[in-house]
């Protein structure tokens, strides 16, 4: 099962992503977590150690230049990347982690060559037939223009009961339709009342597949760099429900 998790910045997508990864792992499934956020901290929320020495692949400029074979405006569209997973993949707690990051080059021109390397690597990872893959995407909608998640089984969009979050979710849904992405599902987060669910459902035209409560202990665990999946039985219960629905295909909103 290949999952991508997106949404507006600050909606809790990485927290939910960490819960999904841990739940899949606890079910005895082989899981590869991919952090594709320009400010990656999925590994920290999962409790991985040694992350201070990890450089996201998107920041390895020499490597990206070498693999893209960039020469002026020219670069290799299908660069060699098949050796990179063995070199840069971490494994702890039975979970594999790759920290891709995302190309952020404001004001310095096109980063197409660098993105070609990341896209090729991501496509290679998504071809793995023997493990679940969970992608923590960058905030917002820019990655949809790069077509990097076309190969996923489900695109899960985290949304809070706030107007800004809803507006981003609507943009994501529109772009997903243009890309002909199927199985775009919404996950509600920080839900307190039925009015919150109604606001999200009425704004998006469909019910969220699951709804996570607003749990203060999640914030406290994150601040102390503790694995967030230990913070809340309520969050664990909703995650179990979510994974059950995805595995059985009972995903209609």
Write the layout of secondary structure elements.
Blueprint: E1 2-7, H1 13-26, E2 31-36, H2 42-46, H3 61-68, H4 84-88, E3 90-92, E4 95-99, H5 112-126, E5 132-137, H6 142-145, E6 154-159, H7 163-178, E7 184-191, H8 194-204, E8 210-213, H9 216-223, H10 233-248
Parallel strand pairs: 1-5, 1-6, 2-4, 2-5, 6-7, 7-8
Antiparallel strand pairs: 3-4
Helix pairs in contact: 1-10, 3-5
Structure report:
It is a single chain. By secondary structure, this protein is an alpha/beta fold. It has one domain (2-248): 3-Layer(aba) Sandwich (Rossmann fold). Helix content is 40%, strand content 17%. It is built from 10 helices and 8 strands. It has an 8-stranded mixed beta sheet with strand order 3-4-2-5-1-6-7-8, sandwiched between helices. Strand 6 (154-159), helix 7 (163-178) and strand 7 form a beta-alpha-beta unit. It starts with a strand and ends in a 5-residue tail after the last helix.
Shape: globular
Radius of gyration, whole Å: 18 Å
CATH topology: the name is: Rossmann fold
How many beta strands in the DSSP annotation?
8
Brief summary of the model shown:
The protein has 253 residues and is an alpha/beta fold. It contains ten helices and eight strands.
Question: How would you describe this structure in keywords?
Answer:
253 residues; alpha/beta; Rossmann fold
């Amino acid at each position: 099962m290949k999952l991508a998790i997106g949404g507006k910045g600050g909606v809790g997508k990485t927290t939910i992503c960490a819960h999904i990864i841990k739940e899949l792992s606890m079910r005895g499934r082989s899981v590869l977590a991919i952090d594709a956020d320009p400010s990656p901290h999925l590994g920290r929320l999962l409790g991985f150690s040694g992350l201070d020495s990890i450089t996201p692949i998107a920041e390895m400029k020499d490597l990206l230049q070498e693999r893209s074979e960039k020469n002026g405006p020219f670069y290799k569209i299908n660069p060699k990347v098949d050796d990179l997973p063995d070199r840069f993949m971490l494994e702890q707690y039975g979970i594999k982690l790759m920290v891709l990051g995302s190309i952020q080059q404001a004001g310095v021109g096109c980063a197409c060559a660098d993105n070609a390397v990341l896209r090729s690597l991501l496509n290679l990872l998504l071809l793995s037939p023997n493990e679940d893959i969970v992608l923590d995407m960058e905030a917002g909608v820019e990655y949809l223009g790069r077509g990097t998640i076309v190969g996923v089984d489900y695109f899960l969009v985290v949304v809070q009961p706030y107007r800004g979050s809803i507006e981003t979710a609507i943009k994501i849904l529109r772009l997903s339709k243009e890309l002909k992405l199927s199985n775009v599902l919404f996950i509600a987060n920080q839900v307190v009342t039925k009015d919150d669910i109604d606001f999200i459902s009425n704004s998006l035209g469909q019910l969220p597949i699951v709804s996570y409560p607003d749990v203060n202990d999640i914030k406290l665990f994150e601040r102390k760099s503790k694995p967030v999946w230990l913070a809340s039985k309520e969050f664990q219960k909703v995650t179990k429900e979510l994974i059950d629905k995805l595995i059985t295909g009972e995903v209609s909103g």
